[in-house]
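batch_manifest entry 22 of 60
target: Tetratricopeptide repeat protein
source organism: Achromobacter seleniivolatilans
requested by: lab member K.T.
priority: normal
notes from requester: please return tokens only, no post-processing; we will run our own comparison against the previous entry in this batch. if the run fails, retry once and flag.
--- input ---
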Amino acid sequence: MIALLCAWSWPAASQAHDEAERLYDLIEQHDAKAFDLLLALAKDDDPQALAVLGFIYEHGVSVPRNAGQAIHYYAQACAQGGNYGCRNAAYFYEYGIGVAQDVGQARWYAQQTNTDGIDDLDELESLSRRIYDRKARAETDIGMRVRLIDFARSILSGLYDSEKAAMFRIGFGKRETLRLARVWAQDGDPVLNFMVGSFYNFGYSYVDNKNSEAFKWFSRAAAAGEPRSQNLLGLTYAEGLWGIQADPQLALQWYERAAQQGDQDALVNLGRIFYLGEIVPVDYERAISLFKQAAAKDSPRAARFLSWMYYNGQSVKTDCRKALQYRQIRRGERQDESSDATFWTTCKGDSYRRKNADQTLPVVTLQHKSTFSGGNDGGLACEPHFIASTNKLGEIANLRITVELRNDRGAATQRILAFSPFGLNTMDEDMNGREYNSFTSSTLVQMQTKEFCDFGPNYKILAATAAIHGHNVDLLAEGILKQ
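--- output ---
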């Protein structure tokens, strides 16, 4: 949105904007030197520095709150082309915040706003009124804070550059909105802490380490009981995102806490853990209970799992009708039993074949497919990719294979490979409907160091167990595991 402003060229505006924001971040941490540097920028009539100083005095960031000083700096920023501070200064007079109410003075400052790049001036006035009405109410009602920040977010996430330009001139661009949300979040509101984390996620800040900043605020919100943040922490620890080392048990704990509050995504994510059986042993009954709770909240992801489970008869009897219904819900299709004859026929055929399958054990094959370099925003050295496959129809769940990896220097390490259920049907698609070999399952081994990234074919199988046709089997003792 800054690209729309005429006062500066884009590179100069961006650099100045970043410097003022960088200094603000330091001032928030009570860095006196940073405050002096910001004052020096302001003395050079840098409009962003002046606007930031106005914000600092308006909200008492490491200085006492002072409406007069805030207006002084906002007015100076406004005088540098009308891109910054005009509506901020007008706000104090419009609502009598810290000064006597003066509608004429408020109108004068508002009229100094640069309107270049704004298609609809009525829209500018409407947005300004809606923003500042909410802000004035938030002065005495802290419950309005979330509503104001959420309203600003809804406009900033829109598609129109004109609206975004208007929001910037009002003093509620992305960085300004983040700054205000961050100040208010310091009081401990869990929803505001979640919103701050989201703003970092969606690029509201100049910082490079957006993910780690987001994680910090999400952690605060989660600790205060905010369920969306708890679910995000579960996801982060489950998958090892944002440079955070994977911790399956922490993932489980955070998902549990969010699911207990009825968070739709957490219900599905927790159910997924019990369904896949990679972190804990498979528990289909717990999984389907969680998926049904999420489906009652209209979760298409839950419908995907429920379709799969009714198709395969996992903890329930195979029910092709329900499987198709949930499949159509997931896809947003009109429910019609006759609309997918192939699915209907294959479901019935697979159910029959499972009931009448030869009870001899299958042959399971383990293959090291490839090794991916890096991963997790640089937090991993590599991820060896293993695939397990079966030669016949019949559920294989809870497959655990202990391997010894040996590098060319003779050093060795052991890893346990955990695989999700496979061999269940002949659909040759995954739960998302994408083409996939139904008789295979894959897993990635996260390596924090490069020491064992190049083990090649030099790995040894030490142990292998699985539940096959619902019975626990030692694959090595039965001689049914091939490498």
